[in-house]
Amino acid sequence: MFGIGELTILLLVIVAVLAVKRLPDLVRSAGKAARILKSEKQALKDEGKSEGEGGGPSPSAPRVIRGETTERDTTP
Hints:
Layout: H1 4-19, H2 23-53
């Protein structure tokens, strides 16, 4: 019978063979995600520069997001 080591190797080979078909899609998706994160990071950096130059709040100041206040129902 097979030992744990042989079963592990067999499982890894099966997963690798099945994953070959989907690997290009996974790599493409990872590349798109990396590009999106990079562009968002650049946008945040640009936003921080424009706020600092315009006399607005400094980039280290906390941002206040206005919303509506709701009351919590405390009855059991």
